[in-house]
Structures are given as C-alpha cells and as structure tokens.
Design a protein that fits this description.
Glutathione S-transferase Yfyf (Class Pi), Chain A, domain 2; Rossmann fold; about 375 residues; alpha/beta; 6-stranded mixed β-sheet
C-alpha cells in the first residue's frame, strides 16, 4: 500500500499543496515550522480521521478559512482509491470515497499508516491514557469495526457519568436507570477489553524482538494488560468471565461511584504496563531505553498490520534527530523494506542512506523537488 498523491486545501499552513508520491522512501526536509509535520499529519488524518497532535479539528484549518480539504490517492490491494475529507470545525466532516459520499467509518482501512514521532515518548513515559490510546488506535487500524466499539463505549461512559453527577446534585441515592447503563457499560466494555487483550498477546513477542533490534542489545521487555478491578495478573480474554468480573466490580464500587460521581470501573481506567529488565519502563527506563521501547511499540504495530497482507505507510516524523547514530542506522535498516516510508527531517544529513529516495524541500508551506 502506498500514497500516490496528497492534495491539501486550507489545511494548517497550506493554502494549497499537491504532491505526487511513489513507493519506497520519500524525504521532506526544511527548517522547523515550515510545514513538514503538517503534511504528514494530513496523511495520517486521511487514514484515521483524527489528528495525532490535537483533539479538535479547529487548529487544522488555515487562519481565515472556514474548512480544510484533504485528498489522498491510495494504491493498494490491487486497486486505486481516492479518499476526500472536508474538515468542518464544529460540524460533521464530509467524506467521499471514490467520489461517492460515505460515513467516515466506511472509509477506514482504505489507507493505513504507522506514525513514528517525538510525541511517542509519551506512550512510555506518560499517563495511562497514552498507552490506552496506542492500543485502541492500533485496534481500529487492524479491525475498523472497533471504531464503533470504541465510540459506543465512550458514549456510555459519558452518559453514565452524567447520570451519576445528576444524582449527586439531587442529594444522592441510586438514580433510576443506572442498572440499564451498567448493562451497556459491561457489554461495550467487555468487547473493547477483549480486543485489547487479544492485541496485547499478539504484539508482545513482536515488541521484544523489535526492542532488541532497535537497541542493539537483548532486552527483557514486558507488556501486561492490567484491569483496575484486579489487584494483579493479566485477565484471560474470556467474554463471560470478563463480564461477570466487571459486574462484580460495579457492585463493589457503587458507593464510591455515587459519592464521586464518576465511572470507576471499565477499560477507560485500565493500564498497559510496560517493563524493561523487570522494572517499570515509566520512571525507571533511561532516555535511550524509553526511545527504544517507543520505537519497538510502533514497529510491532507495523508488523501486526503487515501480517494482514499489505504494508501500511510508515511515517517517520522528525525521529532521526532524536536518536543516536546507532539507533538511527538500526531503525533505518528495519524499515527500509517497507512499501512506502515518508520521512521528515530538519537536516537531510540526519536521514540514513538506507532511506535514500525521492526528496522534497518544504519552506513556508511550499513543497518543491530537491
């Protein structure tokens, strides 16, 4: 799979941009703040319908414009496709697939990307929500139906939290209808937890291999999915047991939930625990070890998506400037054989020769052949 063309209108700093791409490695070089990351952000948006940098669409619109348009032509699976997205802040975005209007969910999977970025350190060093997002984003990329599962679960948590807050405002007590929302929380929560557990089991050996390859040394890495309702140990992906455990945890937490007016049980509070050498990566790993773990998680994502029959598009956004020479070379060797690799760099010399290929310069939102 690879992008053959990416065209933008009023996206970030680009009034208009149109770049044609081929398979293999393509590098975009330019000083900081010139639009390199904006370009690959648009490519990722065409794959996921979300930005990895901001949670709302407003910042994606060029100042003075009312909307932005992203057009991504994709070659993969023996066919060519065109995804067009009209980004409308405060309103529903419009999506077209091969010129026909579709719901965003129907276009998921047409383009798949794996992004490496400096922000990836937050997966290792940041709060649990960063690791939950890593799992859920990968789940959706691997099986687009999980976009609906994720959305349904988040809706249930919002509605149930609102009910708890209204009950507390009225003086407490169990609000009518809470049991109905409990059932919906369990149904959607078990579905999301099942997907996460199966994914963790799949990528665990991949992360170990990738960590050793990137770091250049054997690494005793660990991934463990921990539910907030369990003291220790990773649960088995057994639907009925997960449902029973969640119902029991809801009953045990009833008083605390009513007092605090928040949902205290469910996958929105679970954790993906990462370890290196038997110690938690968060708080104990060195900067180099943290980078190796972050890269290993992304390489595992690439490997599990590749197992579906096609390579996703690999995007390395200003990553090489963050790595020492050894890790640069090892990462380049690992990804050089991908169908398509898009690289951004402030200094072209930072990009290893293994990724030599098409090169563009980016300055003031203008993209030009080098």
């Amino acid at each position: 799979m690879h992008l053959t063309r990416l065209a933008l209108t009023d996206f970030r700093c680009y009034a208009a941009a149109d770049v044609r791409l081929g398979p293999g490695a393509t590098t975009f070089t330019g000083a900081n703040g010139q639009g390199k990351t904006n370009l690959v952000e648009a490519a990722c948006y065409a794959a996921t319908f979300a930005s990895h940098r901001v949670s709302a669409d407003g910042p994606l619109i060029r100042r003075g414009a009312e909307r932005a348009i992203i057009r991504a032509a994709v070659s993969g699976g023996g066919r060519d496709s065109l995804v067009e997205i009209e980004v409308n802040p405060g309103r529903a975005n419009r999506v077209r697939l091969n010129r026909a209007p579709v719901r965003p969910r129907e276009a998921l999977g047409v383009l798949r990307t794996v992004l490496f970025a400096p922000e990836d350190l937050a997966i290792v060093k940041g709060d649990p929500d960063q690791r939950r997002r890593y799992l859920d984003d990968l789940l959706v990329a691997l099986r687009p139906r999980y976009a609906g599962v994720r959305s349904d679960y988040e809706r249930v948590v919002r509605q149930r939290s609102a009910l708890l807050k209204s009950a507390r405002a009225r003086g407490g007590g169990v609000p009518p209808g809470l049991e109905v929302w409990d059932d919906q929380l369990v149904a959607a929560g078990v579905e999301l937890t099942m997907g996460r557990l199966e994914l963790v089991q799949s990528i665990r050996p991949m992360v170990t291999r990738a960590y050793s390859a990137v770091s250049g040394a054997a690494g005793d890495t660990g991934l463990r999915y921990r539910q907030v309702l369990r003291a220790e140990g990773e649960p088995e992906p057994e639907r009925e047991k997960l449902a029973n455990d969640m119902r029991a945890a809801l009953a045990d937490s009833r008083r605390a939930e009513l007092e605090r007016a928040v949902c205290l049980v469910g996958p929105h509070r679970d954790e993906l625990e990462l370890s290196i050498g038997g110690l938690p990566a968060r708080g104990y790993a060195s900067h180099g070890e943290s980078w190796s773990m972050a890269l290993a998680l992304r390489l595992a994502a690439f490997e599990v998506l590749r197992a579906g029959g096609e390579d996703p598009v690999l995007i390395l956004d200003d990553v090489f400037a963050e790595l020492d020479v050894g890790r640069r070379g090892r990462l380049a060797e690992l990804v050089a054989g991908a169908d398509q690799v898009l690289v951004t760099a402030a200094v072209g010399a930072d990009v290893p020769t293994e990724l030599s290929g098409q090169r563009f310069s980016v300055a003031d939102g203008v993209i030009a052949d080098e």
